[in-house]
Amino acid sequence: MSFKEYPSREALMAGLGQTIAGELRAALSKGAATLSVPGGTTPGPIFDALAQEDLDWPRVAVMLNDERWVGEESSRSNTRLLKERLLVAKAARARLVPLYAPTETPEESLDKLAEGIIPHLPITSLLLGMGADMHTASLFPGADKLAQALAGNAPVLMALRAEAAGEPRITLTAPVLKQARHIHILITGPEKLDAYQRALTLSPTEAPVAAVLPQATVHWAA
Ligand SMILES: O=C(O)[C@H](O)[C@@H](O)[C@H](O)[C@H](O)COP(=O)(O)O
Fold first, then answer.
1. Which atom belonging to ligand 1 lies closest to the Cα atom of 64?
2. What pLDDT, in 10s, does the model give residues 27-42?
3. Which residues have CB under 8 Å from 63's CB, separation 6+?
4. Residue 137 is part of a domain; what is its CATH number?
5. Count of the separate structural domains present in the chain
6. What is the domain range of residue 32?
7. Three-class SS state of 184
8. Is 66 touching ligand 1 by the criterion CB < 6 Å?
9. Which atom of ligand 1 is nearest to the CA of 138?
């Protein structure tokens, strides 16, 4: 586990964008590469930076760590964010691996979406966000199927429901996250720094982000 503090959010976003681009470039020199990213409000500037990187994007599979079960017309759609901020400019030619399909419930689409993901595992570069409640991806404390999603034998993809999550979620499970070659957790501000420090002392059931902390680099700026 390591912790990296940056002098400003701008420095964090630019620096981490370059780190991830370097990891993808190294993987591409040997074969294909997979980038998995969060939605939410924090990663937009890293997406902007990555979209300008000179990479062999058609050989990069890009997916989300998790999705809120809403259509792309919703401002809460992570797929929409991805299309607007990451899969543009030079990265427009990257290959999007979907985490959403227009069925009423996520359960109806789980198998099909998982089938699309499996050929692109393990993830080369995994960028994770974290909530102040210490959830990561859609592994929320108190979620209905959290224990199954944290288990070593969890399927690749699961549908979860949690009060704090709002709509139903679909998420990569802990074993898939842990198998990523490079794991980066992106957090900003004092509240999330405090949550990260608490997570270091808690179990993944209490603080789901703890499941990946041992292998992760945490990147923080005030
Ligand atoms: O769809 C989501 O909600 C995410 O993927 C989620 O895990 C996110 O990374 C955290 O909730 C942090 O979100 P913020 O960056 O908005 O604080």
1. 5
2. 999 999 999 999 999 9
3. 34, 35, 36, 37, 96, 97, 98, 99, 117, 120
4. 3.40.50.1360
5. 1
6. 2-221
7. strand
8. yes
9. 7
